[in-house]
Amino acid sequence: SFAWATRGLYTLVLLRCHASSMAPVEDNEAGKEDPPIVLELKTLDDDFLKLQKAYEQEEQALRRQFTDRQKPLLDQRKKVLEAGDSDEKTGTPALVGFWMTALKNHPAFEDEIEKYDMPVLNYLRDIMCVDLDPEDSQKGFRLKFHFVENPYFTNAILSKEYHTSQASPYTGEMNISEIRGCKIDWKAGKNVTVEKVKKTGPKKKKPGKEVLEPRPSFFRNFFRTIKEGSPLPEDVDPHELAMQVDADDEPDEEDLVDALMEMDHSAGEAIRWNIIPFAVRWYTGEAAPDGGDEDEEEEEEEEEEEDD
């Protein structure tokens, strides 16, 4: 559901729509040119934008420098986690289920990881992130989930790519053109994204036939592929999705696909900027929101109901 990522989503959409409606449009009327003062202001605006782009390029270069300096620390973390002597087969012998716990403690994934996903995620040894274009981080990023040999699938790495571009230099809005998951090569009988369901035969006397039906799973939801303009995935309930994004009116399929991609991208960024660099803090729960305000609100509502 990625419920955490939906907060304020439609507010953001409304703001974007407003920004688009307020954006300057050249040649509002055919053959009509901007008055000299507007042209002069646009020239200043363009010069400002050039400096802004130069700043962003230097910022990206600086981030790459520090990413290179931080990498040995992440490599050392991986060695520490692999140095344990646990009898249990796991990707992180020093702390069994380290990455699974870190992911599940994040609000973006706490409701996405099912009980039957957890044993699979225990074989996760590391998560890495790289820019799709080393020189331009705005083009998107790739997440790589490294697994040790396990009884569930044959893949050593599960990857996911987010393809993006800058939609407007004036708002900083990013356009998500494609979210590309990967094919998971499940071993026989080990696919946790499906379950056996017994179908009732046409006559009660005949035994029902068992068929595989899709079921909710982190591995189904997170590693799917979605493209801009594509139909909504068959396993996504449009009504449930519309409720998650608090849509007042019935959104069309294109709006739902856009919302799903926004939510997915937010979840990917949560892994990139929250979980990968500060995994142990998510493992312990220190980084997780305490939810104190929400608990207090629920208690106040209960007290009000009792008084009524």
SSE layout:
Layout: H1 9-22, H2 36-82, H3 98-104, H4 118-121, E1 124-131, E2 140-147, E3 157-166, E4 174-180, E5 194-199, E6 209-214, H5 218-221, E7 226-227, H6 238-244, H7 253-275, H8 279-284, H9 292-307
Antiparallel strand pairs: 1-2, 2-3, 3-4, 4-7, 5-6
Secondary-structure element series:
HHHHEEEEEEHEHHHH
**What oligomeric state do the depicted chains represent?**
single chain
Largest sheet: 5 strands, antiparallel
Q: Which structural class matches the secondary elements?
A: alpha+beta
Q: Care to count the β-strands?
A: 7
**Unreliable residue stretches:** 1-28
Query: In angstroms, what is the radius of gyration?
Result: 24 Å
- Average pLDDT rating: 86
Helix content: 40-55%
Strand order of the largest sheet: 1-2-3-4-7
Helical element count? Answer: 9
Overall outline? globular
C-alpha termini separation: 34 Å
Strand content: 15-25%
Jot down its keywords.
alpha+beta; disordered N terminus; globular; two-stranded antiparallel sheet; 5-stranded antiparallel beta sheet; about 300 residues; 9 helices; single chain
Give a structural overview:
The chain is α+β, with helices and mostly antiparallel strands and 308 residues long. It is built from nine helices and seven strands, in the order ααααββββββαβαααα. The chain has a five-stranded antiparallel β-sheet with strand order 1-2-3-4-7. A hairpin with a 7-residue loop joins strand 3 and strand 4. The chain is globular. It starts with 8 loop residues before the first helix and ends with a helix. The N terminus is likely disordered.
